[in-house]
Design brief:
The chain has one domain. It is globular, with a radius of gyration of 15 Å. It contains 9 helices and 3 strands, in the order H-H-H-H-H-H-H-E-E-E-H-H. The chain has a 3-stranded antiparallel β-sheet with strand order 1-2-3, with helices on one face. It starts with a helix and ends with a helix. The chain is mostly helical and 174 residues long.
Length: 174
């Protein structure tokens, strides 16, 4: 059993630090890019670890190591504030899946060195001003929709650069 508590804590800190400040519109192109890259990466991981069921929101961490555990007090920090008026919050169950993945530490990279962190694009999407909703086969980002498509279709796509400079450049083009 692997549990990287420090990595899980870092991800919780990133999630807790997200501010739904209305900047999602200014970041709509970069957020769409991040959603597409999240779908591509999670599709590749889902195929690699046999977690296609429930994709793109399957629990990849459990597929890699079913015994991974996260301190319940750490996960409790991710509970939604009922007074929030954000129409696209981070779904608590998805936040827990991301934290569980972080708790695996380096294990996934050791087992599958060719695959990139599946949740980094989603964390960056949240950090750029908001969450998402899922409706009718699309990830809804408030100002743009990204089709989910099939796991095999998404897994076969080429990676998209998601470095800060590229994302900022996309947003300047808007």
């Amino acid at each position: 059993m692997v549990t990287d508590t420090a990595a899980a804590e870092r991800v919780v800190e990133r999630l807790v630090a997200v501010h739904w400040d209305g900047t999602a519109r200014a970041h709509r192109r970069s957020r769409a890019r991040l959603a597409r890259e999240f779908l591509r990466r999670t599709a590749q991981w889902a195929l690699a670890v046999g977690a296609e069921e429930g994709w793109p929101f399957s629990d990849l961490a459990s597929a890699v190591d079913p015994k991974v555990v996260v301190d319940p007090a750490l996960l409790a920090r991710l509970e939604l504030d009922p007074s929030s008026d954000d129409p696209f919050p981070v779904p608590p169950q998805m936040a827990a899946v991301i934290v569980r993945w972080a708790a695996l530490g380096d294990l996934p990279r050791q087992q599958f060195p060719g695959l990139e962190d599946p949740y980094e694009p989603l964390l960056a999407l949240f950090e750029r001003g908001g969450g998402y909703a899922v409706a009718n086969g699309f990830i809804e980002l408030a100002f743009i929709s990204v089709p989910i498509r099939s796991v095999t279709e998404r897994a076969s796509l080429e990676p998209l650069p998601i470095d800060e400079a590229t994302l900022d450049g996309l947003d300047r083009e808007s």
